[in-house]
Amino acid sequence: MLFPTANAIHFISQDVDDYTADVVVPVDVAAQTITSVAMDPINGVIYYATLDTFGIHRVNLTGENQTSILDEHPTAITSLEVDYATQNVYFVDSYENRLEVASTDGRRRRVLHDGLVSPTGLALDPVSLTMFYIDTGDIDREESPKIYSAAMDGSSPEAIVTGHPLNHPLYIAVDNGDGVDGLIYWTDVGTNMVYCASLLGEEPRAIAGFGPLDIGSVVHGVAFFGGHVFFTDSGLRKIYESTTILMDKSVYMEGFNYLSDIKIVETRKGHIGGCLNTSRCDYLCLPNPNVPSKQTCACATGIEPLPDGSCPEVPNTFLLVAGQNSLRRIALDNPSGEYVDIPLYDSLDGYGVNAVDYLLTARGEGYIYFAEMKTPSGVAGDNVWRSRIRRQCMFEQNGDGSEIIHEEDTGIIEDIAVDWTTGNVYFTLNAVGNSRADSHVAMVSGRGAGNKVTLVNTTLHKPRGIALHPLQNTMFWTDFGDPPKVETARMNGMSRTPIITRGQMPFSNLLHPNDVIVDLNTDLVYFCDGGAGIIGATTFLGNAGEIIVAVDDNPDLRRSQPTKLFIRKPWSLTMRHFSPSDRDDDPETEEAELFWSDPEFHLMSSVSLVTTGRSTTGIEKTHLRNILERTTLYKPLAVQFVSIDGHKPGEITGLTTMPCSTHSCEYLCLNINATHFHCLCPDSVPNCRPRSAECVHTSV
């Protein structure tokens, strides 16, 4: 028997009748925070989940070698189980509202059931290769509680218990019964009872408990062994024992503070299936009773195996989302049709992630670039806004290999854009609360050498979004100061001109232009305005514009469901392109999906676009939808679409065919066109004068 208390884990042998010697394993956690425990009896390792450290940890039976296998913010793991035959840990995350599996070292993981309402308990049956888990639901959202069964690879999920007697189910246990007359058991804190049902969810009935009127009693965890059911009562600080036939109960042990989960750990003979040799799979081997091999070779979340069974390192198409204190990857093309996301990086030192872009090279390299900002602490007069730009290998997980390539202490780096022909990173800086610096548009080397070059720093108020068209040596940025506008210039800052201003039709109510992107396929510029609640499109010259999406596009929905508007306050934009089946008949037609984030309402939404020609008058919009609408998607500030196979035009060839790839500059190189380049001098090098092919150093 295994159960946690305030800051320790207890285990008691069940091999000898009436033997209740308590062995205590101390763990380094705050009181009241252990939510669930599990054990690998073969290797003598205990796994436990905590609320104070937001993760899963393991420790040996002597309390030594405490390590974390999953430690990320934020999360709330309410239940976990270990399948020691495959060396996988299954767990329920009630913050992300999903069921996951990970290897016991935490390096390989996959979401098995996403989009649950309020999941809590989990139990594995390694004999039948089945798992059972609870979704408590949400009365306010009219989502009723359910108990699910599924194969241990997440396939074939089925709600087997619904309706009565479910009220607020919490923990669950399973007795396989050696394949005959097996039962599942669960506790319900709404009724304060323990229930059981068949493995198919049939004939549910109460077997023990105190009922909702018993003041002080709070039934929590449940376990089964040898014809007896054990359950914890955190209110009465006792562990009870009951038979499965009579509505009886007796005190098994008492005097424990903060009781929650309880498990009975048995050493089984192993799986019926094919995962005893986990080396057969490239990533994760998961039991599945419904296939001849009794196993599924699974890849990471959002990734499907290649024909040879191997796993790509990243999905073919996905969104990169900066969610204030984390960077996430949302896979788009899953056979299940679900959008699933996994964390790539968590900022734990006071910085918040607020911008993201990427670079794919002809050498098969991939890099994610993201900006972070840190608000002033206010301590000892600290009023400095700090920002930095990081680079991380696209094929690494959990921030491995992340490096800082540029830092600022003069304001907020609002947005970044990578020039894929040179690898240089352009950014906008808002010198908020700083009297010694100007807001500006600048560029730095994307290879970590710094060498900042300020490109535009006059009459900028609050620059925000930035986008590049390197093949035309053009950049665009938004400014939500007074007056708000969208501007363009050459990528060296010259030939600057506004293309959208307040009062310009049809954008006469321009208020807060947040982001701008360039559609390289149609030579159109898209921007979003969080103040006006619109997404608009215009030509490179700004001489023709159209509102693509506005806050009142669906007035019926707005009246009936004010919390589910398709657009409220858009903040960041990105776009994916499709190849229509009739491209040969109509080569001027472009099909695309436009995504935007809304950090205030925690939304990711999209609209399908069909563009004919290179004019905003030919844009047809359809299928307006919210693709992610969960409070777990906390403040999505920036979004970027990535396609590993379908690159931006010229992106893969850019690094090898543009002149900067074959000519060397002392500091920074800028491609003017396909045959000409320009060398730039960084701000930090005095008396440096750029020339077309070199930087000249002069004396004072």
UniProtKB/TrEMBL annotation:
InterPro entries: 6-blade_b-propeller_TolB-like, Cueball_EGF_LRP_Nidogen, LDLR_classB_rpt. It comes from the Eukaryota. Pfam families: Ldl_recept_b. LDL-receptor class B repeats lie at residues 87-128. SUPFAM superfamilies: NHL repeat, YWTD domain. Keywords: Lipoprotein, Receptor. The keyword Nucleus does not apply. SMART domains: LY. PANTHER family: VITELLOGENIN RECEPTOR-LIKE PROTEIN-RELATED-RELATED (PTHR46513). This is Low-density lipoprotein receptor-related protein 4. It comes from Geodia barretti.
